[in-house]
Amino acid sequence: MRFDPQLAEIRFGCGLSPSVAAPASIEQMLATLTDTDAIASRFPIENFDAFQKRIAYTQSLQKIRKKNRGSPEALAAKKGRRVLNKEARIAQAGWIGQHLNRWVSTEAPLRERLTLFWADHFTATGKVGLIRRSASPYMESAIRPHINGPFEDLLIAAVLHPLMIHYLDQQRSIGANSKRAARGGKLVGLNENLAREVLELHTLGVNGPYTQTDVTELAELLTGVTFAPPMRLKFRKDQAEPGAETVLGKSYGGGPAHIRDVVAAMRDLAHHPATARHIAWKLAVHFTSDTPDPALIDALEARYLETDGDLSAVNEALLSHPAAWVKQRSNVKPAFHFIGSAVRALDVPAQAITSLEEKMTRDLIVVPLRQMGHIWEKPDGPDGLPEEDAAWIAPQGIAARLQWSITAPQLLMENLPDPREFVHTALGDFTTPAVEFAANAAETRWDGVGLVLASPAFQRT
C-alpha cells in the first residue's frame, strides 16, 4: 500500500486546498482526531445546551400567552415568539456557513467527514416550531464529540438525545400496562419508531438477525424514555411498561423501571457481531465505493469486534487497508461535499461566507443543495441521505452542479484564481488532459473555474 497525500485529501478529507497542506501520513491523519478541535472553536456552532435556552424562552412566552389571552401581555408574548423564531432561522443559516468555513480552513478534514457521516447515520431533525432549527446543535453535542471513541457511547448519545426522541415520536410511546395508561385519558400507546430504527438503521442493519418480536420488546423497554421542558432527556417510570423485556434472546429489566436497562440494551446492541458488519459495510461504501472490496469490509468488521467497537481502531483500519488507496475514484461526492470541497479549493475567505445574509445563504447554498438532492436539515426519513452514486448524478442534480460552479464562485470571491493554475489546485495529480485543456481555453476566469468544478474529475472521490 502506498500512501497518497492528495488522494487522502480527496477521499478522506474535504478536498485539496491551496493554503492547507495535505497530510504526510496516515498517522498524522489519525492524530488530528485526538487533537484539540480547534476549527470548531474558530468557527463555533451553537451546541444543544445553548439551543435549549432558546426553547426555554419560547416556552415561557407561550405560557404567558395562554395565561393572558387577549391581553397586551399575550400580544407581546406572541410577538416575542415570532422574534425568537426569526433569530433561530437566521442562526441556522449562519451555522451552515460555519460548516463550510470549517471545510475551507480545517487542518483536520477527516474529523469533518466523519462528523457528517455519523450525523447522517443518526439522522434526526426537528419537525415543528423552534426545534426545526436544532439539527446542527444536535450534531455538535451528540455526534462530533464521539466520532473517535467507543461506538456504544455514540449510539447512546444519539439515540437518547431529546432531538432523536422528538424526531421519532418516542415521547408518545406509553406502556399498555403502565401506571399512566391505567389512569386513562388521551394516550397514543406503544410507538415502535425508535426501536425499529435502532435495530434496522443504527445497529444491526436492515437484514440483521432480529424479528418483529424484538422490535416490540425493545419498544416496550424504551417506554419511559421521553423529554421534559426545555427538551431535556427524562425517564418517566409511570410511562414505562412493567416487567422484563427480551431483545435478541437477552432479558432486560424486571425490577423497578430504570433507564439503565435501556442503556444496557444499547451497549449490547453496539457489541453485536451484526452491528460490526453493518458499520463496516457503511464506512466502506461511504469512503470507497458503492461496491466496496469485501476484504475491506472484513477488515473493518474484524477490528470492530477485536476492540469492542472502538471507532479509533476502526478508523485506523479503514485508512490502513490497501483497498482504501486504490487510485480509481469511484464515489460521487454528495451535494454538501461537492460545495464544501469547491469552496476549499477556491480558498474562499471566511468573512465572505460569514457575512452572507440569510437570503444570500439560501440562494447560494441552501437552494442549490436542494436542487442537487440534499434538502439541508430536512431529511426524507431516518435513513438519511443516499449513498448510491446514481442518486447524486441525476440530470437535475448535474445541471444544478454546473449552474452553481459557474455562478457561485464569482459571488463568493472578488478575485477568482487563474483557471490554468486552479485546475491543478483543485485536482492535483488527478488533473485530466480534457479538464486542463478546458481550463486553458476558457474565455473568462469564471468560465474556467466553473468548468473545473463541474468536471467529472472534480465530482469523484
Describe it.
- The protein has 461 residues and is mainly α.
- Among the domains are: 164-270, no CATH class; 335-459, no CATH class.
- It is 58% helix and 3% strand.
- The protein contains 24 helices and four strands.
- Helix 11 (193-202) crosses helix 12 and helix 22 (433-441) packs antiparallel against helix 23.
- It is globular and about 75 Å long.
- The mean pLDDT is 97.
Number of helices: 24
How do the strands line up in the largest sheet?
A: 1-2
State the distance separating the first and last CA atoms: 18 Å
Helix and strand sequence: HHHHHHHHHHHHEEEEHHHHHHHHHHHH
Number of strands: 4
Residues in helices, as a percent range: 55-70%
Round the mean pLDDT to the nearest integer and report it: 97
Helix/strand-derived class?
mainly alpha
Largest sheet, in brief, is: 2 strands, antiparallel
| Poorly predicted ranges | none
The value of Rg in angstroms is 24 Å
**So what's the overall shape?**
globular
Beta-strand content bin? under 5%
